[in-house]
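Q: I'm teaching a short session on how sequence maps to structure, and I want students to see two examples side by side rather than one. Could you give me a first protein with its sequence written out and its structure tokens following it? Keep the formatting plain so it prints cleanly on a handout.
A: Of course. Example one:
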Amino acid sequence: MAETSGAKFLSQAEFARARGVSRKTVTGWKQKGLLVLDGEGRIEVEATEWNLDQRPTTYRGGVTHRPVRAKDGNNASHAEAAPKPAPKPAPEPQPRPAPLDGDGGQEDVFDPDDPNLPTAIAVRRKENWLGLHRKQIVERDGSKLVDRPAAEAAFFEEGRALRDAWLAWPARVAIEMADELKIEPRQLTPVLTAYVKKHLTELGEPPAGEFG
């Protein structure tokens, strides 16, 4: 930058050359009131440089040409801007106290069956239930679980087939057994049927409608 301290007054063009800036920049300084002019419109160099040097070191992405100066009478001495103090650390948030009831000062007991749960807890319970439901669907589709109505129906059909087979057994084997025992088949069939029914009763038939 050219030295401007030798001249007390300069035109705007001369001042722009001395500062190493464009005329447009000097015009901008004038519009901002940074230029000190005499009665003839010339720039008072010392006073104007003082105004320019009071700007921050950096501003809007730009940099001032000279460091900030402290004014002492008519003499200008250079002084570095004082560093900004470090920001104070933000206070640590204090934990909220746990909600207390009105009796013994204990935390409120969570009741999952309460229909008047707070919104946050109700939403969390809903999401947990949906997650468990989806897990059951996945495990069922992966053969880890079975459909209960289908399993009960299959069990009932299997039990009924076994019962019918037992009830048909006396008539099927009575003739062969009677021939070995040398008795009338008509006498043996009712006896076998009665004992088979007694056996089935002891095994226990499912109550009506349990699997239906």
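Q: Perfect. Now a second example for contrast.
A: Example two:
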Amino acid sequence: MLPSPALSGRKRGHGGLHLHPSSLRQRSRITNLGVVLLVSFLCFSLLFNLRQWLSASDDHHYHIPAISHNTDSHEADQNSILLSTNEPVKAKRLIIVAGHAIWKGCLPEKRLDDEDWERGQTRESSVSSEGESYLRLAIESNLFHNGFLPFERATSEDYAMDSYQNLLFSIARYHELTGAYPENITVIGYEMKRRRFEELHLPALRWPKDRFKYIGIDEQGDTTMQYKGENENAFLPFSKDIYGCHDLLLAKRRHRNPSRRFHPYHISAPELTGLLNWCPGYQAGYNAIYPGHLPW
């Protein structure tokens, strides 16, 4: 015979099985006790591991650094950049040599050979800048009498797209290098560009004429066509759009920036931010002079 079921001695009622209430309470007490034991063990384990971790941290001197909060985000960004730079270079005069091509040669004594020159970074086929190559040529020629080593007071400006930006961006680059603005400026370039600088760019920057000097150099031979091209393609357009931010001159800047480069001078020369952003509209005839404060 098969053994009697374990529940055979319990009464069955209509509709299902009936268990004695005491058995339910007994099972519940056992379950609660297990939960209490598990929770107690878990708490003990957490406390033990936390103590071990804190002890290890003290042994290895792990400390959370204090963080200072600056509500002026622009000042904070500027300070973080300045911390990564060297001591400012001491200077009073800014000398600008405008570049028109890239020297790609290896021998400085052959610097007059046309085959050692090519178009610069403002052309799609180039990735270097004119100023950078001029500086390299000067160093390799020992022009600074510094033992063919970089000269701390000579640098390049690599973002300008035209002569107006050559002047403005060079002032900003000077500020990056020295922490100040120049007292005097000398520009060395083609003689045919003198009028453009003296009659248009200086007034646009409101730079004092008595603190500016232009040294002009003409090419050998007949330069009639060069002067004509300068007048038609540069002087006249700038005379109608003195900041070069509309129509023809703006199109030239875009064409000369195939790599979509951006200058950093809003941060490194914040006093020039207003001037850097200035672009007078049609109602002002494109020639309204920037009225804001300037550091000179």
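Q: What should students look for in example two?
A: Point them to this: The beta strands are 12-13, 16-17, 93-97, 102-103, 117-118, 184-190, 212-217. Also worth mentioning: The longest strand covers residues 184-190.
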